[in-house]
Amino acid sequence: ILRLEGNPLKILQNKDWILKLEKVKKEVDFMIGRPADELIGDALEIRKISTSYSLISELTRRLAEKTDKDFVLVADLGFFEEFVQIYIRRSEKNNFSTDIFRETALSLGARVGGKEEVAGIIIDRIDFEAYLDKLRKIFSDNDDSTT
Predict the structure, then answer these.
(1) CA 36 to chain centre
(2) Helix, strand, or coil (residue 18)
(3) How confident is the model at residue 1 (pLDDT cuts 50, 70, 90)?
(4) In 97-134, which positions are buried (b, 16+ CB within 10 angstroms) versus exposed (e)?
(5) CA–CA dist 49, 69 (Å, integer)
(6) Is the pLDDT reported for residue 144 higher than 70?
(7) R_g over Cα of the chain
(8) Are 120 and 87 in contact (CB under 8 A)?
């Protein structure tokens, strides 16, 4: 960027970056077209991906715009070697908090962040299935589990 002398057109016209952006867009579109890996009642759509691209936020946002579930959870199993990157977003149809996702992850020692409508989690790979099991129990035990 420094070599481009702060010229935004040079930055925006960088061929390597344009090609990478096109690859990321194609990857997101492909993943959007795939069916969910798991559906839990009306509450949760789970998607598992494996990519080295930093696209989890965009993918989850786009899935949340079109889902009929309360929340979308995307887990990237390929971004980190020892960890799973998880991003949760509530759908457009509800205003439920994502607190339950963060609290459940914290109970397993994960690193968490986010706010009411989104949650970002980095969890040890060995704890990932236990995390999903806890969510399955929470969302299947309660008909109105998001309140």
Answers:
(1) 13
(2) helix
(3) low
(4) bbebbbebbeeeebebebeebbbbbbbbeebbeebbeb
(5) 19
(6) no
(7) 17
(8) yes
> What's the whole-number mean pLDDT along residues 4-15?
73
69-91 pLDDT, tens digit per residue, is 999 999 999 999 999 999 999 99
- Give the pair of three-digit tokens for residue 122: 């980095």
pLDDT band with cut points at 50, 70 and 90 for residue 30: confident
Distance CA 68, CA 91 (A): 8
Residues whose CB is less than 8 angstroms from the CB of residue 73 and which lie 6 or more positions away in sequence, other chains included? 44, 45, 46, 47, 60, 86, 87, 88, 101, 135
Report helix, strand or coil for 57.
Answer: helix
Give 74's strand partners.
47, 87
Strand partners, 45: 39, 72
Amino acid identity, position 15: K
